[in-house]
Design a protein that fits this description.
21% of the residues lie in helices and 28% in strands.
Length: 134
Amino acid sequence: MPSLPPQALYSIYRWRLRCFTVAESSADFQSTIGYNPRDVRDLHPFVPQLPRGHVLNNKRFVPLLALQVTLFPDMGICIGATFNHVASDGRSFNHFMNSWASILRSGGNSAACLEKSMPFFDRDVIKDPCGPFY
C-alpha cells in the first residue's frame, strides 16, 4: 500500500537549488525499513530529487548532491541521498555513505573507521597475462 509523500518541514537552498530537506512522514516505519518485498516506488518519496541546474553570468551551476532526512515521529529517521554522476560513481558514493555511517557509529572517531575502509586503487595487484591496457 503506497504511503503519503513526506511533508517537507524545512529546506536549505544554495544558489537557488534545494540541497537539504527535512521532512516528516506518517508512513509505517517498520514496514518501510523491514526486509519484506515491496514495490520500490513506495520508497521514492524518501529520496530527494536532484534539482535542475541553472545558468548565471554564462556559468552553469549543477547540483552535485541532494539530501533528505525524513522523520518518522517516535520511531526513527530515513536519510535519502541523490548525487550527480559528475561528482562520483556509484561505488565511490556508496563508500562515502558507508564511511559517514561508520564515523557516526563510532562517536566521531574517524581515524579508527577510515583505516579499515580506505579505497584501494593499485591496479598492479592483478596481473593481466596480456599486459596492461592503460
